[in-house]
Sequence to fold (241 residues):
Amino acid sequence: MTPLTRWTACFLVAALPMAVFAQAPVSPGAALQHRYSFTSDASDSVGHANGTLEGAAVVSGGQVHLNGTKGTYVNLPGGLIAGDKAVTFEFWASLGTNRGWCRVFDQGSDTMVNGGRLDLYFSPHSGAGDFRLTVMDPNPSERVVRVRGNLDNQTNLYVACVLDPPSGFMGIFTNGILAVSTNRLTSLESVSTNRFFLGRSLFPNDPPLNGSISEFRIYNAALSAPQISDNFKNGPNAVLK
Fold:
């Protein structure tokens, strides 16, 4: 495995000429809602919305290890972002070789609505030759930002996914650098918050994730670019107020 370097991130951005880039919002008051550090289990040290390890998922060395077998994932409670007007997801992970449409996280509904799951997800390896952030906006339409290539075999990778309907901003940051964004996000209201999985898709035929996650955080606002840069530099074990 090789780390995703600054040069690699810039190359990925350059490879996507049709991407729409927007300025990241400024949100000095962003509050950390949930934090999963996987020191011994899937406990939430901030919001106390504790998760459960499913299948062969195991916590060791400060990471939850997911081996890519069916039924292996972290099951988090529903309602984690219910009522939020904007949200940031950030995580540190080491990824193995994955198949198309695996997920780092996926939240939405158990049932199909207009052909979809009313979901919001990050796929590090889609079936279309990219990694992407996707949100239902508005149902039945999807809003997608994507970067060509995939994130297979990256170690100590940091990703932040920012969704801020008030400003229209929706973007992916890799290792503290903006990789892709749009200014066309309108709402999070079509996203169901009934289910939340780490390492599993809401669609049963999609493959599970092969990799490990050392830190997963959810904020109830859009982190700014400087905040994201600082979080990346401070690392997954930083003491947060």
